[in-house]
Amino acid sequence: MAYAFPIDPAELFVERTPQMLSTGIAPADLDGVRTQIVDMWADAPGGWVFEWSRLARRYAENGQPSLAAVAFGWAKFPTLATPAMRTALENQLEQYLRAAPDFPVAFERRVLDLPHKGGRTPVPVHILSMKGLAADAPVLVVTGGVDTWKMDMHGLFVALALMGVARVMTFDIAGTGESQVAMSADGGAEIAEGVVAAARAMGARKVAYFGVSMGGHFAARLGLSGLVDAAVDFGGPVGARPGGGRPTRFGMFDIVANALGHDRRPEPEELSAQMAGFSLRALLDQDRNGPMLVINGADDVHVPQEDTLVFEGRRATSVHLIPGTGHCATTKSAEAFAIIQAWLRDVLAD
Protein backbone atom coordinates (compact mmCIF):
# COMPACT_ATOMS: atom_id res chain seq x y z
CA MET A 1 0.00 0.00 0.00
CA ALA A 2 1.22 3.47 -0.83
CA TYR A 3 -0.01 6.85 -1.99
CA ALA A 4 1.34 9.90 -3.78
CA PHE A 5 1.23 13.21 -1.98
CA PRO A 6 1.66 16.91 -2.73
CA ILE A 7 5.31 17.96 -2.72
CA ASP A 8 7.39 20.36 -4.76
CA PRO A 9 10.42 18.47 -6.13
CA ALA A 10 12.41 21.69 -5.85
CA GLU A 11 12.11 21.35 -2.06
CA LEU A 12 13.66 17.90 -2.20
CA PHE A 13 16.59 19.21 -4.18
CA VAL A 14 17.09 21.92 -1.55
CA GLU A 15 17.20 19.34 1.23
CA ARG A 16 18.93 16.45 -0.54
CA THR A 17 21.56 18.01 -2.81
CA PRO A 18 24.44 17.34 -0.36
CA GLN A 19 23.30 13.73 -0.05
CA MET A 20 22.92 13.37 -3.83
CA LEU A 21 26.43 14.62 -4.42
CA SER A 22 27.82 12.37 -1.69
CA THR A 23 26.42 9.32 -3.49
CA GLY A 24 28.56 10.07 -6.53
CA ILE A 25 26.24 12.00 -8.83
CA ALA A 26 28.34 14.55 -10.74
CA PRO A 27 27.31 18.20 -10.19
CA ALA A 28 26.66 18.66 -13.92
CA ASP A 29 24.40 15.58 -14.04
CA LEU A 30 22.58 16.74 -10.91
CA ASP A 31 22.02 20.17 -12.44
CA GLY A 32 20.68 18.46 -15.55
CA VAL A 33 17.96 16.48 -13.79
CA ARG A 34 17.13 19.37 -11.48
CA THR A 35 16.54 21.61 -14.49
CA GLN A 36 14.30 19.03 -16.19
CA ILE A 37 12.15 17.92 -13.24
CA VAL A 38 8.92 19.86 -12.71
CA ASP A 39 6.61 17.15 -11.32
CA MET A 40 7.09 14.60 -8.55
CA TRP A 41 4.89 11.75 -9.71
CA ALA A 42 4.46 11.82 -13.49
CA ASP A 43 6.14 9.01 -15.42
CA ALA A 44 6.73 11.34 -18.35
CA PRO A 45 9.28 13.95 -19.43
CA GLY A 46 9.68 16.39 -16.55
CA GLY A 47 8.68 13.77 -13.99
CA TRP A 48 11.00 12.83 -11.11
CA VAL A 49 11.20 9.11 -11.80
CA PHE A 50 11.35 9.62 -15.58
CA GLU A 51 14.30 12.03 -15.56
CA TRP A 52 16.31 10.19 -12.90
CA SER A 53 15.71 6.90 -14.74
CA ARG A 54 16.83 8.47 -18.01
CA LEU A 55 20.11 9.47 -16.32
CA ALA A 56 20.42 5.97 -14.85
CA ARG A 57 20.01 4.33 -18.25
CA ARG A 58 22.69 6.60 -19.67
CA TYR A 59 25.07 5.46 -16.96
CA ALA A 60 24.16 1.82 -17.63
CA GLU A 61 24.73 2.20 -21.37
CA ASN A 62 28.13 3.76 -20.63
CA GLY A 63 29.16 0.71 -18.60
CA GLN A 64 28.77 2.43 -15.21
CA PRO A 65 26.44 0.12 -13.26
CA SER A 66 27.41 1.59 -9.87
CA LEU A 67 26.29 5.05 -10.94
CA ALA A 68 23.24 3.58 -12.65
CA ALA A 69 22.25 1.98 -9.35
CA VAL A 70 22.67 5.31 -7.58
CA ALA A 71 20.54 7.16 -10.15
CA PHE A 72 17.81 4.49 -10.12
CA GLY A 73 17.91 4.83 -6.34
CA TRP A 74 17.08 8.51 -6.64
CA ALA A 75 14.43 7.66 -9.25
CA LYS A 76 12.45 5.59 -6.74
CA PHE A 77 12.97 8.17 -3.95
CA PRO A 78 11.28 8.86 -1.57
CA THR A 79 8.58 6.15 -1.59
CA LEU A 80 7.33 3.36 -3.87
CA ALA A 81 4.07 5.18 -4.43
CA THR A 82 3.83 4.53 -8.19
CA PRO A 83 4.45 1.56 -10.50
CA ALA A 84 7.31 3.49 -12.14
CA MET A 85 9.05 3.92 -8.80
CA ARG A 86 8.67 0.23 -8.03
CA THR A 87 10.22 -0.52 -11.42
CA ALA A 88 13.07 1.86 -10.61
CA LEU A 89 13.81 -0.16 -7.46
CA GLU A 90 13.94 -3.35 -9.53
CA ASN A 91 16.30 -1.64 -11.96
CA GLN A 92 18.43 -0.39 -9.08
CA LEU A 93 18.88 -3.92 -7.77
CA GLU A 94 19.75 -5.22 -11.24
CA GLN A 95 22.45 -2.58 -11.73
CA TYR A 96 23.74 -2.97 -8.18
CA LEU A 97 24.26 -6.70 -8.66
CA ARG A 98 25.98 -6.03 -11.99
CA ALA A 99 28.37 -3.69 -10.20
CA ALA A 100 29.03 -6.09 -7.31
CA PRO A 101 31.97 -8.02 -8.86
CA ASP A 102 33.94 -4.76 -8.91
CA PHE A 103 33.24 -3.78 -5.29
CA PRO A 104 36.46 -3.34 -3.27
CA VAL A 105 35.07 -5.79 -0.71
CA ALA A 106 33.53 -9.25 -0.87
CA PHE A 107 29.76 -9.17 -1.44
CA GLU A 108 27.00 -11.69 -0.80
CA ARG A 109 23.22 -11.41 -1.09
CA ARG A 110 20.99 -13.67 0.98
CA VAL A 111 17.24 -13.77 1.57
CA LEU A 112 16.37 -14.59 5.17
CA ASP A 113 13.03 -16.09 6.17
CA LEU A 114 12.15 -14.31 9.42
CA PRO A 115 9.25 -14.30 11.88
CA HIS A 116 6.88 -11.34 11.75
CA LYS A 117 3.67 -10.95 13.75
CA GLY A 118 2.93 -14.67 13.91
CA GLY A 119 3.88 -15.35 10.30
CA ARG A 120 7.04 -15.27 8.18
CA THR A 121 8.46 -12.73 5.76
CA PRO A 122 11.44 -12.72 3.37
CA VAL A 123 14.15 -10.21 4.25
CA PRO A 124 16.95 -9.72 1.68
CA VAL A 125 20.30 -8.90 3.28
CA HIS A 126 23.59 -7.79 1.76
CA ILE A 127 26.86 -8.80 3.40
CA LEU A 128 30.05 -6.85 2.69
CA SER A 129 33.44 -7.74 4.15
CA MET A 130 37.16 -7.50 3.70
CA LYS A 131 38.51 -10.62 2.04
CA GLY A 132 40.18 -12.95 4.53
CA LEU A 133 38.22 -11.74 7.56
CA ALA A 134 38.16 -14.31 10.37
CA ALA A 135 35.14 -16.62 10.44
CA ASP A 136 34.16 -15.41 13.91
CA ALA A 137 34.69 -11.69 13.16
CA PRO A 138 32.04 -9.33 14.54
CA VAL A 139 29.01 -8.54 12.40
CA LEU A 140 27.84 -4.95 12.14
CA VAL A 141 24.18 -4.82 11.15
CA VAL A 142 23.45 -1.49 9.44
CA THR A 143 20.14 0.00 8.31
CA GLY A 144 18.98 3.26 6.80
CA GLY A 145 15.74 5.14 7.27
CA VAL A 146 12.30 5.50 5.72
CA ASP A 147 13.54 6.98 2.43
CA THR A 148 17.22 5.98 2.16
CA TRP A 149 17.68 2.23 1.89
CA LYS A 150 20.40 -0.37 1.81
CA MET A 151 21.59 0.10 -1.78
CA ASP A 152 21.39 3.88 -1.43
CA MET A 153 23.97 3.80 1.38
CA HIS A 154 26.51 1.61 -0.40
CA GLY A 155 29.39 4.05 0.02
CA LEU A 156 28.97 4.12 3.80
CA PHE A 157 28.74 0.34 3.99
CA VAL A 158 31.90 -0.15 1.94
CA ALA A 159 33.75 2.31 4.17
CA LEU A 160 32.61 0.39 7.25
CA ALA A 161 33.64 -2.93 5.71
CA LEU A 162 37.04 -1.54 4.73
CA MET A 163 37.75 -0.88 8.40
CA GLY A 164 38.45 -4.60 8.49
CA VAL A 165 36.99 -5.16 11.95
CA ALA A 166 33.54 -6.56 11.08
CA ARG A 167 31.33 -7.98 8.38
CA VAL A 168 28.66 -5.48 7.40
CA MET A 169 25.14 -6.89 7.04
CA THR A 170 22.50 -4.53 5.67
CA PHE A 171 18.74 -4.78 5.13
CA ASP A 172 15.76 -2.50 4.57
CA ILE A 173 13.75 -1.76 7.70
CA ALA A 174 10.09 -2.78 7.63
CA GLY A 175 7.95 -0.64 5.33
CA THR A 176 10.83 0.34 3.04
CA GLY A 177 12.76 -0.92 0.04
CA GLU A 178 12.44 -4.65 -0.53
CA SER A 179 10.49 -5.18 2.69
CA GLN A 180 7.13 -6.87 2.13
CA VAL A 181 5.52 -5.71 5.38
CA ALA A 182 4.51 -2.31 6.69
CA MET A 183 6.55 -0.63 9.38
CA SER A 184 5.35 -0.92 12.95
CA ALA A 185 7.10 -0.51 16.27
CA ASP A 186 7.03 -4.13 17.44
CA GLY A 187 6.94 -5.71 13.97
CA GLY A 188 9.91 -3.68 12.79
CA ALA A 189 11.84 -4.56 15.93
CA GLU A 190 10.99 -8.24 15.47
CA ILE A 191 12.56 -8.19 12.00
CA ALA A 192 15.65 -6.35 13.29
CA GLU A 193 16.01 -8.92 16.06
CA GLY A 194 15.69 -11.70 13.48
CA VAL A 195 18.54 -10.26 11.43
CA VAL A 196 20.67 -9.97 14.58
CA ALA A 197 19.91 -13.62 15.36
CA ALA A 198 20.99 -14.57 11.83
CA ALA A 199 24.23 -12.65 12.34
CA ARG A 200 24.91 -14.55 15.55
CA ALA A 201 24.17 -17.81 13.75
CA MET A 202 27.01 -16.94 11.35
CA GLY A 203 29.37 -17.44 14.30
CA ALA A 204 30.11 -13.80 15.01
CA ARG A 205 31.72 -13.29 18.39
CA LYS A 206 30.03 -9.88 18.63
CA VAL A 207 27.03 -8.34 16.90
CA ALA A 208 26.53 -4.58 16.79
CA TYR A 209 23.68 -2.57 15.25
CA PHE A 210 24.20 0.77 13.48
CA GLY A 211 21.02 2.55 12.44
CA VAL A 212 20.72 5.77 10.44
CA SER A 213 17.63 7.98 10.77
CA MET A 214 14.62 5.69 11.39
CA GLY A 215 17.08 2.81 11.44
CA GLY A 216 18.58 4.58 14.45
CA HIS A 217 15.30 4.06 16.28
CA PHE A 218 15.68 0.30 16.01
CA ALA A 219 19.38 0.52 16.89
CA ALA A 220 18.44 2.42 20.04
CA ARG A 221 15.69 -0.06 20.87
CA LEU A 222 17.95 -3.09 20.55
CA GLY A 223 20.78 -1.32 22.35
CA LEU A 224 18.60 -0.22 25.27
CA SER A 225 17.18 -3.75 25.48
CA GLY A 226 20.67 -5.27 25.71
CA LEU A 227 19.98 -7.46 22.65
CA VAL A 228 23.18 -6.45 20.83
CA ASP A 229 26.75 -6.09 21.99
CA ALA A 230 26.88 -2.44 20.87
CA ALA A 231 24.58 0.04 19.15
CA VAL A 232 24.98 3.26 17.15
CA ASP A 233 21.91 5.49 16.89
CA PHE A 234 22.62 8.08 14.18
CA GLY A 235 19.73 10.53 14.10
CA GLY A 236 17.05 8.10 15.23
CA PRO A 237 13.73 9.25 16.75
CA VAL A 238 13.12 7.68 20.15
CA GLY A 239 10.10 9.62 21.46
CA ALA A 240 11.94 10.89 24.52
CA ARG A 241 9.02 13.19 25.33
CA PRO A 242 5.52 11.81 24.64
CA GLY A 243 3.69 14.08 22.23
CA GLY A 244 7.00 15.68 21.29
CA GLY A 245 5.93 16.42 17.74
CA ARG A 246 5.78 14.68 14.40
CA PRO A 247 7.82 15.12 11.21
CA THR A 248 6.34 17.65 8.80
CA ARG A 249 9.13 19.17 6.67
CA PHE A 250 10.09 18.07 3.14
CA GLY A 251 7.25 15.58 2.81
CA MET A 252 8.37 13.53 5.82
CA PHE A 253 4.83 13.25 7.20
CA ASP A 254 3.72 11.40 4.06
CA ILE A 255 6.97 9.44 3.68
CA VAL A 256 6.49 8.04 7.18
CA ALA A 257 2.80 7.39 6.51
CA ASN A 258 3.73 5.40 3.40
CA ALA A 259 6.20 3.32 5.40
CA LEU A 260 3.46 2.63 7.94
CA GLY A 261 1.34 1.14 5.16
CA HIS A 262 -1.26 3.85 4.53
CA ASP A 263 -2.90 3.95 1.11
CA ARG A 264 -4.28 7.44 1.72
CA ARG A 265 -3.08 10.46 3.64
CA PRO A 266 -3.93 9.89 7.33
CA GLU A 267 -5.20 12.60 9.63
CA PRO A 268 -2.41 14.14 11.75
CA GLU A 269 -3.97 12.68 14.90
CA GLU A 270 -4.00 9.21 13.35
CA LEU A 271 -0.31 9.37 12.47
CA SER A 272 0.56 10.81 15.87
CA ALA A 273 -1.22 7.91 17.57
CA GLN A 274 0.77 5.42 15.52
CA MET A 275 4.08 7.17 16.15
CA ALA A 276 3.40 7.22 19.88
CA GLY A 277 3.92 3.47 19.77
CA PHE A 278 7.54 4.09 18.74
CA SER A 279 8.40 5.88 21.98
CA LEU A 280 11.29 4.20 23.81
CA ARG A 281 10.49 6.00 27.04
CA ALA A 282 9.98 2.76 28.98
CA LEU A 283 13.35 1.41 27.83
CA LEU A 284 15.02 4.75 28.54
CA ASP A 285 13.80 4.45 32.14
CA GLN A 286 15.61 1.10 32.52
CA ASP A 287 19.33 0.44 32.94
CA ARG A 288 20.36 -2.62 30.97
CA ASN A 289 21.95 -1.20 27.82
CA GLY A 290 25.32 -2.23 26.47
CA PRO A 291 27.75 0.22 24.87
CA MET A 292 25.93 2.86 22.83
CA LEU A 293 26.86 5.81 20.64
CA VAL A 294 24.12 8.37 20.00
CA ILE A 295 24.88 11.09 17.47
CA ASN A 296 23.02 13.62 15.34
CA GLY A 297 23.15 17.15 13.96
CA ALA A 298 22.02 19.91 16.30
CA ASP A 299 19.76 21.54 13.69
CA ASP A 300 17.69 18.48 12.72
CA VAL A 301 14.25 19.52 11.41
CA HIS A 302 12.86 15.99 11.74
CA VAL A 303 14.13 14.70 15.10
CA PRO A 304 14.19 16.93 18.22
CA GLN A 305 17.47 17.47 20.06
CA GLU A 306 16.02 15.84 23.17
CA ASP A 307 15.94 12.48 21.35
CA THR A 308 19.74 12.66 21.37
CA LEU A 309 20.35 14.49 24.64
CA VAL A 310 18.11 12.12 26.61
CA PHE A 311 20.98 9.59 26.43
CA GLU A 312 23.40 11.87 28.28
CA GLY A 313 24.50 10.41 31.61
CA ARG A 314 23.69 6.80 30.73
CA ARG A 315 26.33 4.23 31.51
CA ALA A 316 28.50 3.04 28.62
CA THR A 317 26.97 5.70 26.36
CA SER A 318 28.66 8.40 24.30
CA VAL A 319 26.53 11.31 23.04
CA HIS A 320 27.42 13.80 20.30
CA LEU A 321 25.22 16.62 19.01
CA ILE A 322 27.17 18.19 16.14
CA PRO A 323 26.55 21.94 15.74
CA GLY A 324 25.89 23.63 12.43
CA THR A 325 24.33 20.68 10.65
CA GLY A 326 20.95 18.96 10.39
CA HIS A 327 19.43 15.51 10.20
CA CYS A 328 22.14 12.82 10.43
CA ALA A 329 24.78 15.58 10.12
CA THR A 330 24.54 15.41 6.31
CA THR A 331 26.69 18.50 5.71
CA LYS A 332 29.31 17.33 8.23
CA SER A 333 29.30 13.65 7.34
CA ALA A 334 33.11 13.33 7.48
CA GLU A 335 33.17 14.63 11.05
CA ALA A 336 30.32 12.35 12.09
CA PHE A 337 31.82 9.29 10.41
CA ALA A 338 35.19 9.89 12.09
CA ILE A 339 33.45 9.77 15.48
CA ILE A 340 31.46 6.65 14.54
CA GLN A 341 34.46 4.87 13.03
CA ALA A 342 36.69 5.49 16.06
CA TRP A 343 33.95 4.33 18.43
CA LEU A 344 33.27 1.16 16.45
CA ARG A 345 36.96 0.28 16.25
CA ASP A 346 37.18 0.50 20.02
CA VAL A 347 33.97 -1.32 20.92
CA LEU A 348 34.41 -4.14 18.39
CA ALA A 349 38.03 -4.80 19.32
CA ASP A 350 38.79 -8.10 21.03
Residue share in helix = 40-55%
What is the helix/strand order? HHHHHEEEHEHEHEHHHEHEH
The total number of structural domains is 2
* Main sheet summary: 8 strands, mixed
Shape: globular
Number of strands: 8
Low-confidence runs: none
Instruction: Assign the CATH superfamily of the largest domain.
Output: Alpha/Beta hydrolase fold, catalytic domain
The CATH class of the largest domain, by name, is Alpha Beta
Mean pLDDT: 95
- Radius of gyration in whole Å, from Cα? 19 Å
Strand order of the largest sheet: 1-2-4-3-5-6-7-8
- CATH-level-2 architecture of the largest domain: 3-Layer(aba) Sandwich
What is the tally of helical segments?
13
The CATH topology of the largest domain, please?
Answer: Rossmann fold
| Percent of sequence in beta strands | 15-25%
Counting helices, strands and paired strands, the structural category is alpha/beta
